[in-house]
Amino acid sequence: MVKWTWVVVAMVWWLAGAGGCDSPDREVIEVPVDLSPGTPLPDPGDLGPPPAVSCALRVSVSTPDDCGKLESYDLTGCDLESLKGVDTSGPFNARFHDTSTGPGRATDQLLGRYYFLEPEAAHPMFLVSTANIPGRPYSVTAELGCRAVGTDRVLGCDVYCEAGKPPRVLSFESVRTRRRPGEAESSGGLRLIGEASTGANTGMGVDVYVTKGHAYVVNIEAGFPGEGGLFVFDLADRTAPRLVASITHPDDAYWNGVWAKDDALYVASAARGVLVFDISDPASPRLIQDLSGGMRRSTHTLFVNGNRLYAMDNGDVLIFDVTHAREPVLLGSYRDESSRMPGRNSYPHDATSLNHLLFVNHWGAGLLILDARDPANVKKLGAYEYPNAMSHYSRVAYFQNNLIAFEGGEGWGAHLRVLNLNDPANPTLIGEYKLSPEVSIHNMELVGNRLYLAHFQQGVRVLDVTVPSRPREIAYHHTWREHDPVFLNVSSWEGAVGIRVPGDGYVYVVDSQRGLLVFPEL
Q1: Please, what's the b/e burial string for 320-331 (b: 16 or more CB within 10 A of its CB; e: otherwise)?
Q2: Which of 276, 274, 243 is nearest to 261 (CA)?
Q3: Across residues 10-19, what is the average pLDDT?
Q4: What is the DSSP letter of 179?
Q5: In what order do the strands lie in the sheet with 316-321?
Q6: What pLDDT, on a 0 to 100 scale, did the predictor assign at position 250?
Q7: Which residues contact 114 (CB under 8 A, 6 or more apart)?
Q8: pLDDT band (50, 70, 90) for residue 482
Q9: Which site among 54, 94, 204, 230 is 20 to 30 Å from 198 CA-CA?
């Protein structure tokens, strides 16, 4: 590993009147190299060009059942023979382009398990499913491959037919998920030293927080029998974390985020908003209240900075005072105008902050830059927007006098962007880090000049960001195993999902299948 000479000078305050969060506003990282803001780069956005495939139905299609007949499709532009060489032994990640709406949309689904090869059949990759549910219109969905590129990439059509409506025709591109060519299980000294499962039928691991010598892992229910919940691991021996408690709720199986302050643990619930647990006994969390106000609330993520708790909830960013950690008090909220725009598909997914500045990953609206000095009157300073945005997670710090954001998207073509936020009204792209377009980033942690990424099927990635505009990978570890059982329709979100680097010398990762993994901090 190449060593850089660097010094972190902490506890430097910016704008003495910021107030309210009792936390350092920035780290100043001094390095013996040029740290100029960087030259702005063009940003074509995510997704890229739509899949180049013709999905044509013949004019004779008039009923849903017609969509399930091979003769209903015009396959003159397809190469069916090429499909016979596709490797369908593992999962595929896919994106879909809606030909009826122009710009297209992106979703991720598991396709590989559904493909089947029958060399003697009229079509080697054709799947038909029907839905005949009481009270709903009868429908037929057909997926058919049109041609393959090599053995790992398939282009094809997805057609949905419902009684009384014209067919909806999507083109798709799907790629067999594999390790990148030439990569081993790990590199750069990022070795796995401990592992512990949350147990059988406990859903999909998504987030972790470490405090008081314990790791708190949350799982979500994920398309098959299995409850989500909270799972507590004793870390006295990090080579063998020990599960000491599990908490589930029969009507609330989607707990997606977790954080702690003092003797309080906060969990993001899709049914009851923010759940507050007492962890004065760290091995035995005790639910003491939820912050739903008696209404059904869906909190997706949350985090704490100083005495503020921020929760992404039902399209709003809620801001609580947690001076008394077990007794949060709502101070205010923010809802961006993009949440109200028809067809915009934007909502607050996650956020981070530096003192009074709040940075919200607002999905289709990109990264918002907010002044939250007054929680009752949050002001928007600017936003970094890009085409087909799927803004998901970020970390922000000062590098010398430059305010730098590391922003990660989630979805096809999404990747790490490095942004210069010196002028909040005019943020610029100055650097990028990309792996495979079909695998994106979930969470990340910035510690000094190291950026740790939970990169789904590409595992844990560690970047040296001493020069922010030129992220340099220095280590990785593949946590995802392609032949493990897969969750229904969520393959693109499997692998390394949650990550924390709490400063105790270790990196804690949640893998969707394997549970809690422990690595040494680099």
Answers
A1: bbbeebbebebb
A2: 276
A3: 30
A4: P
A5: 299-305, 308-313, 316-321, 329-334
A6: 81
A7: 127, 143
A8: confident
A9: 94
Assess whether pLDDT exceeds 90 at residue 468: yes
Over pLDDT 90: what percentage of the chain?
Answer: 62
DSSP strand pairing (153-162 vs 472-477): unpaired
CA quadruple 417, 422, 423, 425: dihedral positive or negative? positive
Spacing of C-alpha 233 from chain mean position: 24
Residue type at 246 in one-letter notation = S
> Which is nearest to 384 in space by CA: 41, 97, 104?
41
Cβ count near 11 (within 10 Å): 10
Task: Please say if the pLDDT value at position 104 is more than 60.
Answer: no
Is the distance from CB of 231 to CB of 508 less than 8 angstroms?
no
Residue where the block lists tokens 């596709």: 86
pLDDT of residue 107: 60
pLDDT for res 344: 65
Average confidence (pLDDT) over 243-270: 94
H helices of 46-154, in order, are 80-83
Nearest to 451 by CA among 400, 497, 394: 394
Q: How far apart are CA 373 and CA 21, in angstroms?
A: 9
In angstroms, rounded to a whole number, what is the distance separating the alpha carbons of residues 518 and 195?
6
CA–CA separation, 232 and 284 (whole Å): 8
Q: Which residue has the higher pLDDT, 340 or 278?
A: 278
The beta-carbon contacts of 132-140 under 8 Å, at least 24 apart in sequence, are 137/162, 137/163, 137/164, 137/165, 138/64, 138/162, 138/163, 139/64, 139/163, 140/64, 140/65, 140/67, 140/68
Residue 219, amino acid: N
**pTM score of the predicted model:** 0.89
The DSSP line for 161-178 is EETTSPPEEEEEEEEE--
